[in-house]
Amino acid sequence: MFRDHLTSSDKLTNAPGLFMITLSSIALGAAFGGYLPLISLWLETLSISFQKIGIVSGVAALGIVSSAYFAPHLVARYGNILVINIGLIVAALMMVALRFTDSMALWLGIRFIGGLGLGLHWVLTEAWLARIASNQGRTRVMALYATAIGLGFAAGPGIIWLFGFETATPFFVMAMLPLVGALPIYALRKHEPEITFTGGGSPLSLIRRAPTIAMACVVAGGVDLALITLLPVVVARTPEAASMLTLSIVPAMAIGNVVLQYPIAILADRFGLRKIGMIIATIGLLLCSMIPFFLTSALVALLLAFLGAGLVYGLYSIGLAMLSKRFTGGEIIAANAGFVIIFELSNLAGPAFAGILLDINMRLGLPIFLVSVGVVYLLVSWLRRNANPDN
After folding, report:
1. Among 73-87, 194-208, 223-237, where is mean pLDDT lowest?
2. Is the distance from CB of 284 to CB of 312 less than 8 angstroms?
3. Which of 23, 91, 157, 208 could disulfide-link to 117, CB 3.0 to 4.6 Å?
4. What is the pLDDT at residue 11?
């Protein structure tokens, strides 16, 4: 039971929880969005190979996955506030520490520990929101949260533009973001939920009990990162493509993610999560699959990226809303941990599978990947339509 409570049934949730977690999530989004390119650019100055840069950047995902396993146990023993903020402090220290070593082994260890620290915030704040959201406003709460992450993610690279990437200064500035994110969480210490722990976070358990939610997570995680990672390369390797798309197509996707989250949530609250999820998956993936065929027109390609990516990422908010309706009480932390694990594994697998198909056929590879993922999601959601029709 939460000391934090709803003041009326028509509100999204209580103001302190939603507002403070949203502020914290903007800071964490900026840390995620700015630190990844900072690492890559700095390592490039050291003449590190692309393969090693990719490994160093990606190993944080393993830390996030590990945090999802540990989070339910830690929060049951020490509480949300302490676990989240210690994780953020550790992440900040690791951000700075990376700059002061040239050991590949230490880089990997530092990135793993940093990912674990940031992952604790991710898992526990999502579970916190799921517990305090009202039934009427649940989807909109998750959409506001996803929008906050997106805003931060888009703003993070600005630190590199201001401070460069060759000195230690941007690393110290970037490390301030998790510490700033810790302040709103600490301010919620009088509103901290009381936890009844019911088990660890298993992705297999989530897949078994809620396959539609798991597939929404797969689509949002795998497709989104595949597009961000591979579309600029497709543009660069297409001679007739509009040159401006190389630098503008990913920002167009990010803006679409931010702008479309809340409208999607309003529609989902009105017409049903499952129905709107199937509609946005169909339209979004079809729009994204058309991008490689319109690279000669910057306007059309950017519009497809804006709408397509924004709709596809809406499945993340819908998946979170479905999860918070399906799981209650102490189950929510474990369920959300499984959700994060599936999302991170999809982040790793999506670009890899799409890349294989692109190596086979650069024009059709990405559309085949997108349509295939969409067909699987729609099939699972349709087969499960009678299991939880209200979702």
Report:
1. 194-208
2. yes
3. 91
4. 55
Of residues 35 and 176, more confidence is placed in 176
Separation CA 238–CA 362 (nearest Å): 9
The number of angstroms, rounded, from the C-alpha of 378 to the middle of its chain's C-alpha atoms is 21
The secondary structure of residue 225, as a DSSP letter, is H
For residue 65, the model assigns a pLDDT of: 85
Q: For residue range 211-236, what is the model confidence (pLDDT) as tens digits?
A: 999 999 999 988 987 888 788 878 87
Closest-CA residue to 187 (of 21, 340, 366): 21
Q: Which amino acid is at 280?
A: I
Taken in order 277, 304, 25, 10, the sign of the CA dihedral is: negative
Task: Tell me how far apart the alpha carbons of residues 346 and 338 are, in angstroms, rounded to a whole number.
Answer: 12
List C-alpha distances in Å: 11 to 141, 211, 255, 282, 346.
10, 29, 27, 31, 33
Among candidate residues 40, 162, 64, the one with its CA nearest the CA of residue 115: 64
Ranges of H-type helices in 219-297: 224-236, 245-271, 273-290
Q: What's the predicted TM-score (pTM) here?
A: 0.79
Token output for 300:
């059309």
Alpha-carbon Rg for the chain in angstroms: 20
Q: Is the CB of residue 230 less than 8 Å from the CB of residue 358?
A: yes
In 206-225, which positions are buried (b, 16+ CB within 10 angstroms) versus exposed (e)? bbebbbbbbbbbbbbbbbbb
Answer whether 124's CB lies under 8 Å from 228's CB: no
Instruction: Return the structure tokens found at 254.
Output: 């990010």
Calpha distance 15→13 (Å, rounded): 6
All domains in the chain, ordered by first residue: 15-191 (1.20.1250.20), 203-383 (1.20.1250.20)
Tokens for 110? 């530092």
Strand partners, 2: 193
Report the percent of the chain where pLDDT is more than 90: 38
